[in-house]
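Researcher: Structure prediction, please.
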Amino acid sequence: MSLLLVWLMFRSMILGLLAGAAWWLIWGRKSQLQSVPVASLTAVGVGVALLADVVVRLMVGGTSAFQLPRPDDLARLLVDARFALPLLLGIVAVIILAFPLPIHASRGSASLARRTPLSFGQGWWFIGAIIIVGAVLTVTVAAGLASEPDEQGFWRLLVVDTGVGGGATTIYGWYYSRPALALVAVLAAVSVGALWLIARPGVGVDQVNDVQLRRLRTRNILAVASGALLVHLGGILTSLAGTASMRGGTATGNGGWVVFGTPFSALEPALSLGGVAVTALGYALLVVVLLTAIPARRGARALLA
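Model: Predicted structure follows.
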């Protein structure tokens, strides 16, 4: 497998890994999970999600490079599920990160302050997640409204009509986006539920460490959910860049030739670059969460080993 092919397949993941590791080396080593069970489950949840993503990418686009057998039906299924997969993996990771639950403090030592899913997070963490959801919804609805049904009745076709001819290509239409929107709702609900489970029990006697741990777990859950949404959004933008690249031509009655493209063909470079950047940012968030599971005392040594 050539380095160029590896770069083309995993460039967003590689950029995200480098960005996440750089952030952790500069700012993140002070924010480490001190609870071994929490750190272990965090590593499992995020690690499994990233590993599954790599495996699927290899199965979809890399098996030919390795000359490995690949069932065609499975390949088609994975291609159709490529937009939903980051959301599914994000849901699984958030569920794992919700455990273990904080230990209930005794009544004599517990704080009586009312706690909500917002109690242990900074406002901009939640605002950032909401903005990402809004961006996903905006792009999804715009692409869905532009789609038309194909011969099978699936809303995944963009038709370009010039009056004297035209063409068609695939687009991220309702066929792909309706299941993804349902998963976005599930991811949001699971994230709120996980935040509630972490915030609900009373704060223990060691309030400083207890609050610090819950704040970091809250940040991690929001980062994993946001990372999954960003990888999903990046996949949409990359797909739309491919749609925008469609070009065609048709002959006119007077012997001329008309060249046509999609209505948003001028956005192809921006969509392509945006897809890579947004996806890389999503992976960076996941990598940062994964690195919080490295014990603080030997974190740098473990990373550089």
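Model: The radius of gyration is 23 Å.
Researcher: Thanks, that helps.
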